[in-house]
Specification:
16% strand
């Protein structure tokens, strides 16, 4: 199979979908790989490295979209990329379709087969391809939040860990999943006073046993969030409903409880955000203020640590790329967990939360692949 790796074009997105090591593995298995020139430059992976691993180098993304059977990316395709997909062409990348009707419409019209990293599951019900980026995003959320708290960035001037004789910052983490846990760990490590909220009592118990008195755990209710906001310096939104739009946990009215210069970091922005006042931002202009509260809502947060993120991501995606290259869409039919990654196939939405969020008819992924065969 011919696998194509275009250069990412989202604002300040430096990650790349395959490393030279991945290319070498694919070529050893009898496949061909074409990489757009400069695709790995943002993480110091040169065209020469890709050539040495066995890849061909394409001058333009169009050359890749025209010829490759499987396109491997990192971020969701931008509109001009979506318009280049064709029927019986596979896309494997992060999609986050629920809050993105334009991308969804274009992929449906293309009739391509689009598989999302973020909805592939494992036998424990976890999201193995999303997890490493969630780890990175959770940690970056604290770095970014600490920076935004600086007076020069519009913050209230609080140092996360404080100093002897001065109280540390109050950090609130909404969600005890991978993002939330990594954010809480980072904040506690810097000496902040951390409260992590979740609606899973077993999860709160796990966190409490893991960290003890280094952070407080609290069952998440609107009342609990409102009380905590009054003294919060930094709030990290880290909730996730796989495939679906994120729930709005903090309303516009609730901002009135917060102090001037407090900071909110919405890691859930890829899924529409968990604050009512959230809107996607870029690394060029990462923040804005609403009612005196700084909002950081960059939609590709791990892209700012692109080298770490690229290797962490490709470590977990490569085995799935190899399966697709070896077995085509049969790889999905052979693995129920991999099948959950199928979001669009031949004009049909095959992920129920996406279909529900955007008012599409839902076709179960197995039915779609069986009734609408790939390559026919």
């Amino acid at each position: 199979m011919l696998i194509g790796v275009p250069k990412e074009i989202k604002n300040q997105e430096y990650r790349v979908g395959l490393t030279p090591a991945g290319v070498r593995e694919l070529c050893r298995n009898g496949h061909k790989v074409v990489v757009e020139t400069g695709a790995g430059a943002g993480v110091s992976l040169t065209d020469e490295m890709y050539r040495a691993a066995g890849a061909d180098i394409a001058k333009t993304a169009e050359d890749i979209f025209d010829t490759a059977k499987l396109i491997v990316k990192v971020k969701e395709p931008q509109p001009n990329e979506c318009r280049q997909f064709k029927e019986d062409q596979m896309l494997f990348t992060f999609l986050h379709l629920a809050p993105d009707p334009i991308q969804t419409d274009l992929l449906v019209k293309s009739k391509c087969t689009a598989i999302a990293y973020e909805t592939v599951t494992d036998n424990r019900g976890s999201l193995p391809l999303l997890a490493p980026m969630s780890e990175v995003a959770g940690r970056i959320a604290i770095q970014a939040g600490a920076h935004c708290l600086e007076n020069a960035q519009g913050g209230n001037g609080m140092l996360l860990g404080g100093v002897p004789g001065v109280q540390a910052a109050n950090v609130i983490v909404l969600g005890g999943g991978v993002v939330g846990l990594n954010a809480a760990r980072m904040a506690a490590g810097l000496g902040a006073r951390v409260t992590i909220l979740d609606r899973s009592v077993p999860r709160l118990k796990e966190i409490d046993e893991l960290f003890g008195d280094k952070m407080q755990t609290l069952y998440s209710t609107t009342h609990a969030i409102e009380r905590l906001l009054e003294h919060a310096d930094l709030v990290v939104g880290a909730v996730l409903i796989p495939g679906a739009s994120a729930p709005k946990l903090i309303s516009r009215d609730m901002l009135s409880r917060m102090q001037e210069g407090a900071v909110m970091v919405d890691v859930a922005i890829d899924q529409g955000g968990c604050f009512e006042t959230s809107k996607p931002t870029t690394h060029d202009q990462p923040t804005y203020k609403v009612d005196g509260v700084v909002h950081y809502c960059v939609a590709n947060m791990p892209g700012t640590a692109a080298r770490t993120s690229t290797f962490a991501l490709t470590n977990v995606t490569l085995p799935y790329v190899l399966q697709l290259a070896d077995k085509n869409v049969s790889a999905l039919l052979d693995d129920h967990n991999f099948l959950q990654g199928l979001n669009v196939h031949k004009g049909q939405i095959t992920n129920k939360p996406v279909a529900t969020s955007l008012n599409y008819n839902f076709m179960p992924p197995k039915d779609a692949l069986v009734n609408l065969p790939f390559g026919v």
